[in-house]
Design a protein that fits this description.
- The chain is of the alpha+beta class and 167 residues long.
- It has two domains: 7-101, no CATH class; 126-167, no CATH class.
- The protein has helices at 6-19, 39-42, 46-58, 162-166, and strands at residues 28-31, 61-67, 72-78, 84-91, 95-97.
- The chain has a five-stranded antiparallel beta sheet with strand order 4-3-2-1-5, with helices on one face.
- Strand 3 and strand 4 form a beta hairpin.
């Protein structure tokens, strides 16, 4: 009975969050304001510092890609659709989780684009039922009497089908 209990699954999920310093794989995180004052940041290489700064300046979500429960976690930029770019290992003291509640993370502003498409509905003019009432903009050359858009070569004459001939 305990295997089918949904409460236990939910409890284990939240319990694992606190056992792993509050971070789970897939969590959206943000860098703290004073993370550059830590000694561990100052001891990092210049290329790692540039990568972290590019994460912050990009405006994209930063997600946890590996959390093993230690003091270090692996984070990467989320380009959407499960594409994580530029993984880097940082201490957990640099970041804090972003809570969206039960909702998914919103689309970042860096991935939104302005569009110049402005669709305004336009009424479609009705075609006249009589071919003689049509204006000059409607092609009538080569058309039949009932539908001016059909030409004589487009019409198919069906005498009898194969099945009708057989019967």
């Amino acid at each position: 009975m305990a295997k089918d209990n949904k409460f236990l699954k939910l409890l284990e999920k939240y319990q694992s969050r606190f056992e792993q310093k509050g971070f789970l794989v897939g969590d959206v995180v943000k860098f703290d304001k004073d993370f550059k004052s830590h000694d561990s940041y100052k001891s990092m290489g210049d290329n790692v510092k540039e990568l972290i700064d590019s994460y912050i300046d990009s405006g994209l979500h930063i997600r946890v890609t590996n959390a093993d429960g230690g003091n270090d976690i692996v984070v990467a930029q989320d380009h959407g659709g499960g594409r994580f770019v530029g993984k880097v290992t940082i201490p957990t003291s640099f970041i804090s989780p972003v809570d969206f509640g039960d909702n998914l993370a919103p689309i970042p502003d860096a991935q939104r684009r302005e569009t110049k498409i402005d669709i305004k509905p336009v009424a479609v003019p009705a075609l006249p039922t009589d071919a003689t009432d049509m204006g000059s903009e409607v092609p009538t050359e080569g058309g039949n009497d009932t539908n001016p858009y059909l030409k004589d070569e487009d019409e198919e004459v069906v005498e009898e089908s194969y099945t009708q001939q057989y019967l």
